[in-house]
Specification:
Layout: H1 62-77, H2 81-92, H3 96-111, H4 113-121, H5 133-148, H6 153-167, H7 173-183, H8 188-196, H9 202-209, H10 214-226, H11 234-242, E1 247-251, H12 259-263, E2 267-268, E3 275-278, H13 287-291, E4 294-296, H14 299-310, E5 327-330, H15 337-349, E6 352-357, H16 360-370, E7 378-382, H17 388-391, E8 396-402, H18 417-420, H19 423-443, E9 444-454, H20 463-472, E10 476-478, H21 481-488, E11 501-503, H22 506-509, E12 515-521
Parallel strand pairs: 5-6, 5-8, 6-7, 8-9
Antiparallel strand pairs: 1-3, 1-4, 2-3, 9-12, 10-12, 11-12
C-alpha cells in the first residue's frame, strides 16, 4: 500500500484534555472567574491536536463530506464509487482543487480499507464490526488523511471530527478523536511494520502492505504464472493496482476529436491512436464529451475492440465474399463503452452492429452511448445473450463477447471491488461465461471471428473457458491475439507478444488487466 505517511503530529493515545478545568467533585478554581462569575481566559491557546472534540470544527468540509457520502453509499447501498462520486461532486459544487482532494480521499480510503481496518483495530477498544458503520467510514477517511495524504495531522483530526459532529452527531466525536490520535502516533510504514511483525506468510504480508484480500493476492500470483510471467512480479502488480488511475479518453474514429481536451492539459495516449490521458476534472466541459464523440475508456478496452475489428477475414474491406455488408455483434454490450467504439469502427468499414444487453436499464445506457454514431449503423437488443446463438445462428462476421467477470483486472478503477468479491464469484461466473461464449460461437458465421474478452487475468475466467470451448468443437482455431493487439497499437509501444491468447497488465502495459482470445471459426 503506497502512501507518504504524513506527519503524525499531536500526542498518541487518549481522548485529550476535556477543557473543563476540573474533575467531578474537585475544588472550584475561583481564581479563574471574574466578578460576574465567568471563567477568564485560560492562557496559551492549545494546538488543534490537543483540543477536545467539543472545541473542534463543527461543520463538514465539502470535499470530505463528498468522500464520506460516497463511502456510505458504497457500504450501505452496494453502490459503485465511480458512479456516485461525480454526482456528489456536482451536488456540492466542488471546484477542481476540492474535487481532486475528494477523489483521492474517496478512492484512497476505499482502496486501503483492509489495511486501515487492521490499523484501526489496534486503536479501538472493541471489534470493528461493533462500531456504527458511519463511524467506521469516518475513521477510514481520517486514517487515509493521516497516513497517506499530505494533510497536516491537526487539520486531518480537526476536519474529521468536525465532519462527524455535522453528519453523525456529537456523541461519537470523542471516540473518533481518541482513535485518530492513536493512528497519528505512527507513520504508515511504522504501522505496517507493526502489523507484519513476526509474520512469515508472504501472502499475508503482501495483503497487509498492499491492501488486498489474501485470496486476491493468491489469485493474482496464480494468474501471473498462468500467463507466462514470474510470480515475483506480484508486488509490482499489487502496487500498480493501488496507483491512482489516469483518465483515458478515446475519440470515436471518424466522429470525435481530442483537440479540446489536448488544449486543456490532456496528453496524447502512448499506446493507441486517437486516445489521450487526462488529469481528470469535469470532463463535461468538453463539447465532444457532452456530444458523446469523445468518451472515457481504458486503453485496454480500446485495444481489444480495435483488435477484433481489424482481424483480416480474407474478404473485401467492409464487406463479405457475397457482397453484403459485414454484420457485427456485441453480445454483452452494457454499459456501452466498447459498443460505441465498435459502432464508430463499423461505420468506417461499412458494417452494421447489433448490441445486446439483457438488463433494460443498461440497454438504455448502451443506446445513449451509441447515440453519437449514425443510427443506420447500429441496433440495440434487450435480451439474454445466451439465446442469440440459437436465434441467429451463423449471422455475424465478428462477435465481441466481453463476459461478466470478477473484475480483478480493474481493481485500480473500482477500488471497492476488492473487498466485495470472493472466490465464490469465480465459481458462480464460470458457467455463465461458458454459455455466453458458446452462444457467440454459434452466432458467428463460418470464416468469422469471436473475440472473448474479460477484465480479469484469472485462468478460471480466461484460458480455462477458452480451452473448454475448443475441446468441444473441431471447427475452431485460435488466432494470434498478441500480434492482433500489437497491430492496432502505436508501433513498438505495446509489445503484447505473439501468443495464442493475450493478457494485458497494469504494471507492464499501464492498462487494466484485459484478456483477449480471438477464436476463428473455420470456413
Amino acid at each position: 500500500m503506497s502512501g507518504s505517511g504524513g506527519n503524525p503530529g499531536g500526542r498518541g493515545g487518549g481522548q485529550g484534555n476535556s477543557g473543563h478545568g476540573r474533575g467531578k467533585g474537585g475544588p472550584r478554581d475561583n481564581s479563574r472567574r471574574n466578578a460576574q462569575g465567568r471563567e477568564r481566559n485560560r492562557g496559551p491557546q492549545r494546538s488543534f491536536t490537543d483540543n477536545a472534540p467539543s472545541q473542534r470544527t463543527r461543520r463538514a468540509d465539502p470535499a470530505r463530506l463528498v468522500a464520506f457520502e460516497v463511502l456510505r453509499a458504497v457500504a450501505a447501498e452496494d453502490a459503485y464509487a465511480n458512479l456516485v462520486l461525480p454526482a456528489r461532486i456536482r451536488h456540492h459544487g466542488l471546484d477542481k482543487r476540492d474535487a481532486g482532494f475528494a477523489t483521492e480521499l474517496t478512492y484512497g480510503a476505499l482502496r486501503g480499507q483492509g489495511t486501515y481496518d487492521a490499523i484501526l483495530a489496534r486503536c479501538v477498544d472493541r471489534p470493528l464490526d461493533q462500531l456504527d458503520p458511519a463511524i467506521l467510514d469516518a475513521l477510514r477517511i481520517g486514517a487515509h488523511q493521516l497516513l497517506a495524504m499530505r494533510v497536516p495531522a491537526h487539520a486531518a483530526l480537526d476536519q474529521t471530527v468536525g465532519l462527524a459532529r455535522a453528519v453523525i452527531g456529537a456523541g461519537p466525536s470523542a471516540l473518533i478523536n481518541a482513535v485518530l490520535r492513536k493512528v497519528a502516533a505512527h507513520t504508515l510504514e511504522e504501522w505496517l511494520d507493526k502489523l507484519v511483525a513476526g509474520e512469515t506468510d508472504a501472502t499475508k504480508i503482501a495483503a497487509l502492505r498492499y491492501a488486498h484480500p489474501e485470496w486476491i493476492v493468491r489469485a493474482m500470483r496464480q494468474s501471473l504464472v498462468a500467463h507466462g510471467r514470474s510470480a515475483d512480479e506480484i508486488n509490482n502488480l499489487l502496487e500498480a493496482d493501488n496507483a491512482a488511475p489516469v483518465v483515458n479518453l478515446v475519440a470515436l474514429p471518424g466522429l470525435g476529436n481530442l483537440d479540446e481536451a489536448l488544449e486543456h492539459g490532456a496528453t496524447p495516449g502512448g499506446l493507441v491512436q486517437g486516445s489521450a490521458l487526462s488529469s481528470g476534472g469535469d470532463l463535461g466541459r468538453f463539447s465532444s464529451v457532452r456530444e458523446g464523440t469523445t468518451r472515457v475508456q481504458d486503453v485496454g478496452s480500446q485495444l481489444v475492440a480495435r483488435a477484433m475489428a481489424a482481424v483480416d477475414l480474407g474478404q473485401p474491406a467492409g464487406g463479405t465474399g457475397d457482397g453484403r455488408a459485414e454484420a457485427w455483434l456485441d453480445l454483452c454490450a452494457g454499459p456501452g463503452g466498447k459498443a460505441a467504439l465498435l459502432g464508430a469502427l463499423a461505420k468506417q468499414q461499412g458494417a452494421t452492429l447489433l448490441a445486446n444487453e439483457p438488463a433494460p436499464h443498461r440497454a438504455k445506457l448502451v443506446s445513449q452511448a451509441l447515440s453519437a454514431v449514425p443510427a443506420e449503423t447500429w441496433q440495440v437488443r434487450t435480451g439474454d445473450g445466451r439465446e442469440l446463438g440459437s436465434e441467429k445462428p451463423g449471422s455475424f462476421d465478428r462477435v465481441l463477447v466481453d463476459v461478466p467477470c470478477s473484475g480483478l483486472g480493474a481493481l485500480r478503477r473500482r477500488p471497492e471491488s476488492r473487498w466485495r468479491r470472493s472466490p465464490k464469484d469465480l465459481a458462480d461466473l464460470g458457467p455463465l461465461q461458458r454459455e455466453l461464449l458458446a452462444s457467440a460461437l454459434a452466432a458467428v458465421r463460418p470464416g468469422g471471428v469471436v473475440a472473448y474478452v474479460t477484465c480479469s487475468p484469472h485462468p478460471a475466467e480466461t484460458t480455462a473457458v477458452v480451452a473448454d470451448a475448443l475441446r468441444k468443437r473441431e471447427d475452431l482455431e485460435l488466432l494470434d491475439a498478441g500480434a492482433a493487439l500489437d497491430a492496432v497499437s502505436l508501433p513498438g509501444k505495446l509489445d503484447a507478444g505473439h501468443e495464442s491468447t493475450a493478457q494485458l497488465w497494469p504494471h507492464v502495459h499501464g492498462t487494466d488487466a484485459m484478456f483477449l482470445a480471438l477464436i476463428h471459426k473455420k470456413a
